[in-house]
Amino acid sequence: MAARWAKQRDRSEPSIVAALRRIGATVVLSDHPDLIVGYRGRTFLIECKSKGGSLRDSQRELLAEWRGGPLEVVYTVERALALVSDTVTSTGQSTG
User: Could you give the CA distance from residue 60 to residue 71 in angstroms, rounded to a whole number?
Assistant: First the structure.
């Protein structure tokens, strides 16, 4: 039985997860941030939001204080795919 305070997932998340998995990424659903993504030897932390969606205070704080690798707010499938592809390309790793 799910806890009554369980996190509500964003509407954009299922399509973003599906697209990332289609390109071969490992995607783990998390609470904060929403997704932990592994792709071609890199790790990405992604917060999914629908267009017009706003960040909670705790999410804004995490973004402001984060000192690790990429932590991005993503609103579309296209941005999620570009994030992992652009980062892999910029590191000199093969993209295809």
Answer: 11
